[in-house]
Write a structure and sequence with these properties.
72 residues; 4 helices; mainly alpha
């Protein structure tokens, strides 16, 4: 699976979560799971590289970083 397919799948998942009225934290976690699922659909060697590049921050870590950067 190429990067364009991953992006399209991610955008689709984003749209579905937004349409469902999910909270920001649920949306964030859903996007992480979607990206992980896309990695796992690739051949084994590419899957491992893809998984290693994924965001591993919790929503709380992300939010602290995001709000900290805004205040600077």
């Amino acid at each position: 699976m190429n990067i364009e397919q991953v992006i399209v799948s991610t955008l689709f998942a984003t749209a579905m979560l937004a349409a469902a009225g999910c909270t920001t934290a649920a949306w964030y976690e859903g996007m992480k799971r979607s990206a992980e699922n896309e990695c796992r659909r690739q051949p084994a060697d590419e899957s491992e590289r893809c998984l290693a590049r994924l965001n591993k921050k919790t929503y709380e870590e992300y939010e602290k970083e995001r709000t900290g950067q805004k205040k600077s």
